[in-house]
Amino acid sequence: CPQPSEANATKYERSVVTGGDKLIQLFCKKYCLGAQSMVKYVKLTLSEVNKTMLKDLGVKPYVFPMPVLMIATYCKDSKVDVMNMAWGGICDENQVALNISESHKTAQNIKERGAFTLSVADIPHLDEADFFGIASGNDMADKFERSGMHAIKSKRVDAPIIEEFPITLECKVKECQHTENGFRVVGEIVNVLADEKILDGDKVDPKKINAFVFDQFNNGYYAIGEKVGQAWDSGAKFLKK
What we know:
Strand content: 25-35%
Structural class: alpha+beta
Order of helices and strands: HHHHEEEEHEHHEEEEEEHEE
Distance between the termini: 51 Å
Number of strands: 13
Protein backbone atom coordinates (compact mmCIF):
# COMPACT_ATOMS: atom_id res chain seq x y z
CA CYS A 1 0.00 0.00 0.00
CA PRO A 2 1.25 3.53 -0.72
CA GLN A 3 2.13 5.71 2.22
CA PRO A 4 -0.42 8.36 3.18
CA SER A 5 0.49 11.65 1.51
CA GLU A 6 -0.79 15.14 0.81
CA ALA A 7 -1.52 14.03 -2.77
CA ASN A 8 -3.69 11.22 -1.49
CA ALA A 9 -5.41 13.63 0.87
CA THR A 10 -6.30 15.89 -2.07
CA LYS A 11 -7.79 12.90 -3.90
CA TYR A 12 -9.76 12.15 -0.74
CA GLU A 13 -11.15 15.69 -0.60
CA ARG A 14 -12.31 15.44 -4.21
CA SER A 15 -14.04 12.15 -3.45
CA VAL A 16 -15.98 13.81 -0.64
CA VAL A 17 -17.17 16.62 -2.87
CA THR A 18 -18.07 14.52 -5.90
CA GLY A 19 -19.09 11.14 -4.62
CA GLY A 20 -20.00 11.14 -0.95
CA ASP A 21 -19.56 8.27 1.51
CA LYS A 22 -19.23 5.41 -1.00
CA LEU A 23 -16.28 7.01 -2.80
CA ILE A 24 -14.70 7.86 0.56
CA GLN A 25 -14.81 4.19 1.60
CA LEU A 26 -13.36 3.03 -1.72
CA PHE A 27 -10.59 5.62 -1.55
CA CYS A 28 -9.61 4.72 1.99
CA LYS A 29 -9.46 1.04 1.08
CA LYS A 30 -7.34 1.71 -2.03
CA TYR A 31 -4.84 3.97 -0.30
CA CYS A 32 -4.83 2.13 3.05
CA LEU A 33 -5.91 5.21 4.98
CA GLY A 34 -7.09 4.38 8.46
CA ALA A 35 -8.90 6.73 10.79
CA GLN A 36 -5.69 8.27 12.20
CA SER A 37 -4.19 8.82 8.75
CA MET A 38 -7.33 10.51 7.59
CA VAL A 39 -7.31 12.88 10.54
CA LYS A 40 -3.60 13.63 10.12
CA TYR A 41 -3.38 14.10 6.36
CA VAL A 42 -6.83 15.15 5.23
CA LYS A 43 -7.93 17.59 7.96
CA LEU A 44 -11.25 17.95 6.19
CA THR A 45 -14.02 19.99 7.83
CA LEU A 46 -17.51 20.81 6.68
CA SER A 47 -16.56 24.42 6.03
CA GLU A 48 -13.68 23.30 3.80
CA VAL A 49 -16.05 21.15 1.77
CA ASN A 50 -18.41 24.08 1.34
CA LYS A 51 -15.56 26.31 0.16
CA THR A 52 -14.49 23.68 -2.34
CA MET A 53 -18.03 23.55 -3.76
CA LEU A 54 -18.35 27.30 -4.44
CA LYS A 55 -18.32 28.14 -8.13
CA ASP A 56 -18.11 31.47 -9.92
CA LEU A 57 -21.23 32.20 -12.00
CA GLY A 58 -20.28 35.63 -13.30
CA VAL A 59 -22.41 38.77 -13.24
CA LYS A 60 -26.07 37.74 -13.18
CA PRO A 61 -29.27 39.10 -11.55
CA TYR A 62 -29.45 36.12 -9.22
CA VAL A 63 -31.68 37.13 -6.34
CA PHE A 64 -34.44 34.87 -5.05
CA PRO A 65 -37.32 35.17 -4.58
CA MET A 66 -38.45 37.88 -6.99
CA PRO A 67 -42.02 39.25 -6.86
CA VAL A 68 -44.58 38.80 -9.60
CA LEU A 69 -46.28 42.20 -9.76
CA MET A 70 -48.87 43.46 -12.24
CA ILE A 71 -48.70 47.12 -13.32
CA ALA A 72 -52.04 48.29 -14.72
CA THR A 73 -52.43 51.54 -16.65
CA TYR A 74 -54.72 53.28 -19.11
CA CYS A 75 -53.64 53.91 -22.69
CA LYS A 76 -54.40 57.10 -24.64
CA ASP A 77 -57.61 55.53 -25.91
CA SER A 78 -58.54 54.49 -22.33
CA LYS A 79 -57.89 50.82 -23.02
CA VAL A 80 -56.48 48.80 -20.14
CA ASP A 81 -52.88 47.65 -20.33
CA VAL A 82 -51.20 45.31 -17.83
CA MET A 83 -47.51 44.47 -17.55
CA ASN A 84 -45.80 41.71 -15.54
CA MET A 85 -42.88 43.10 -13.51
CA ALA A 86 -40.32 41.45 -11.21
CA TRP A 87 -37.71 44.21 -10.92
CA GLY A 88 -39.42 46.51 -8.46
CA GLY A 89 -41.23 46.76 -5.16
CA ILE A 90 -41.48 48.80 -1.97
CA CYS A 91 -38.86 51.54 -1.58
CA ASP A 92 -40.40 53.46 1.38
CA GLU A 93 -43.35 53.23 3.77
CA ASN A 94 -45.64 54.85 1.21
CA GLN A 95 -43.70 54.42 -2.03
CA VAL A 96 -42.98 51.83 -4.69
CA ALA A 97 -40.30 51.72 -7.36
CA LEU A 98 -40.70 50.29 -10.85
CA ASN A 99 -37.55 49.46 -12.79
CA ILE A 100 -38.82 49.07 -16.34
CA SER A 101 -37.70 49.84 -19.86
CA GLU A 102 -38.95 53.19 -21.12
CA SER A 103 -39.92 51.54 -24.41
CA HIS A 104 -42.74 49.61 -22.72
CA LYS A 105 -46.32 50.69 -23.34
CA THR A 106 -46.70 50.81 -19.58
CA ALA A 107 -43.94 53.42 -19.28
CA GLN A 108 -45.62 55.60 -21.90
CA ASN A 109 -48.98 55.32 -20.14
CA ILE A 110 -47.49 56.16 -16.76
CA LYS A 111 -45.89 59.33 -18.11
CA GLU A 112 -49.13 60.42 -19.77
CA ARG A 113 -51.57 59.50 -17.00
CA GLY A 114 -49.40 60.07 -13.94
CA ALA A 115 -50.82 57.01 -12.22
CA PHE A 116 -50.89 53.21 -12.10
CA THR A 117 -52.00 50.34 -9.92
CA LEU A 118 -49.74 47.56 -8.68
CA SER A 119 -51.21 44.14 -7.92
CA VAL A 120 -49.84 40.88 -6.53
CA ALA A 121 -50.56 38.02 -8.92
CA ASP A 122 -52.02 34.80 -7.51
CA ILE A 123 -51.71 31.17 -8.58
CA PRO A 124 -55.28 30.87 -9.95
CA HIS A 125 -54.33 33.58 -12.47
CA LEU A 126 -50.74 32.50 -13.14
CA ASP A 127 -51.34 31.92 -16.87
CA GLU A 128 -52.85 35.37 -17.32
CA ALA A 129 -50.05 36.98 -15.33
CA ASP A 130 -47.43 35.24 -17.45
CA PHE A 131 -49.23 36.31 -20.63
CA PHE A 132 -48.99 39.94 -19.47
CA GLY A 133 -45.22 39.47 -19.43
CA ILE A 134 -45.05 37.78 -22.83
CA ALA A 135 -47.25 40.03 -24.95
CA SER A 136 -46.43 43.70 -25.60
CA GLY A 137 -49.06 46.41 -25.53
CA ASN A 138 -47.10 48.11 -28.30
CA ASP A 139 -47.88 45.22 -30.66
CA MET A 140 -51.17 43.83 -29.35
CA ALA A 141 -54.02 46.33 -29.02
CA ASP A 142 -56.38 43.78 -27.43
CA LYS A 143 -53.82 42.39 -24.99
CA PHE A 144 -55.97 42.81 -21.90
CA GLU A 145 -59.16 41.62 -23.59
CA ARG A 146 -57.46 38.37 -24.62
CA SER A 147 -56.76 37.54 -20.98
CA GLY A 148 -60.46 37.39 -20.13
CA MET A 149 -59.87 39.38 -16.95
CA HIS A 150 -61.93 42.35 -15.79
CA ALA A 151 -61.08 45.89 -14.72
CA ILE A 152 -62.78 48.80 -12.99
CA LYS A 153 -61.60 52.39 -12.74
CA SER A 154 -59.91 53.45 -9.51
CA LYS A 155 -61.74 56.12 -7.52
CA ARG A 156 -58.46 57.65 -6.37
CA VAL A 157 -56.05 57.56 -9.32
CA ASP A 158 -56.32 57.60 -13.10
CA ALA A 159 -55.65 53.88 -13.50
CA PRO A 160 -57.56 50.57 -13.70
CA ILE A 161 -57.98 47.98 -10.95
CA ILE A 162 -57.87 44.36 -12.08
CA GLU A 163 -60.73 42.72 -10.20
CA GLU A 164 -59.34 39.18 -10.11
CA PHE A 165 -56.06 39.98 -8.33
CA PRO A 166 -56.31 39.70 -4.51
CA ILE A 167 -54.47 42.86 -3.46
CA THR A 168 -53.84 46.12 -5.30
CA LEU A 169 -51.91 49.30 -4.52
CA GLU A 170 -53.35 52.47 -6.04
CA CYS A 171 -50.45 54.78 -6.89
CA LYS A 172 -49.82 58.22 -8.30
CA VAL A 173 -46.52 59.02 -9.98
CA LYS A 174 -44.15 60.91 -7.74
CA GLU A 175 -41.14 60.93 -10.03
CA CYS A 176 -39.89 59.49 -13.32
CA GLN A 177 -36.13 59.11 -13.12
CA HIS A 178 -33.74 58.94 -16.06
CA THR A 179 -30.29 57.77 -15.04
CA GLU A 180 -27.31 56.04 -16.61
CA ASN A 181 -28.77 52.84 -15.15
CA GLY A 182 -32.10 53.19 -16.97
CA PHE A 183 -35.66 54.32 -16.39
CA ARG A 184 -37.26 54.20 -12.95
CA VAL A 185 -40.69 55.22 -11.74
CA VAL A 186 -41.32 56.13 -8.11
CA GLY A 187 -44.97 55.97 -7.14
CA GLU A 188 -46.76 57.15 -4.03
CA ILE A 189 -49.22 54.67 -2.53
CA VAL A 190 -52.53 56.46 -1.94
CA ASN A 191 -54.52 53.39 -0.97
CA VAL A 192 -54.48 49.59 -0.80
CA LEU A 193 -57.44 47.45 -1.86
CA ALA A 194 -57.76 43.84 -0.68
CA ASP A 195 -60.26 41.12 -1.44
CA GLU A 196 -62.12 40.29 1.77
CA LYS A 197 -61.26 36.63 1.18
CA ILE A 198 -57.59 37.26 2.02
CA LEU A 199 -58.26 39.14 5.25
CA ASP A 200 -58.01 37.90 8.82
CA GLY A 201 -59.87 40.65 10.61
CA ASP A 202 -58.38 43.88 9.28
CA LYS A 203 -55.02 42.32 8.38
CA VAL A 204 -53.92 40.50 5.24
CA ASP A 205 -53.22 36.78 5.66
CA PRO A 206 -50.27 36.01 3.33
CA LYS A 207 -51.36 32.39 2.89
CA LYS A 208 -54.75 33.45 1.58
CA ILE A 209 -53.19 35.62 -1.15
CA ASN A 210 -52.00 32.40 -2.82
CA ALA A 211 -49.13 34.32 -4.38
CA PHE A 212 -46.18 32.92 -6.30
CA VAL A 213 -42.66 34.15 -6.96
CA PHE A 214 -40.36 34.36 -9.96
CA ASP A 215 -37.12 32.39 -10.25
CA GLN A 216 -34.45 34.25 -12.21
CA PHE A 217 -32.21 31.18 -12.37
CA ASN A 218 -34.46 29.14 -14.68
CA ASN A 219 -37.41 31.48 -15.34
CA GLY A 220 -39.74 29.40 -13.19
CA TYR A 221 -42.66 30.29 -10.95
CA TYR A 222 -42.85 28.90 -7.42
CA ALA A 223 -45.59 28.83 -4.81
CA ILE A 224 -44.77 30.50 -1.50
CA GLY A 225 -44.23 28.05 1.35
CA GLU A 226 -45.18 27.90 5.01
CA LYS A 227 -44.38 30.53 7.62
CA VAL A 228 -41.02 29.69 9.21
CA GLY A 229 -40.41 32.58 11.62
CA GLN A 230 -41.42 36.00 12.87
CA ALA A 231 -39.60 39.18 11.84
CA TRP A 232 -37.97 41.15 14.68
CA ASP A 233 -38.52 38.19 16.99
CA SER A 234 -36.88 35.00 15.68
CA GLY A 235 -33.38 36.47 15.94
CA ALA A 236 -33.92 38.42 19.14
CA LYS A 237 -32.28 35.65 21.21
CA PHE A 238 -28.86 36.71 19.94
CA LEU A 239 -29.30 40.14 21.52
CA LYS A 240 -29.09 38.52 24.96
CA LYS A 241 -25.57 37.14 24.48
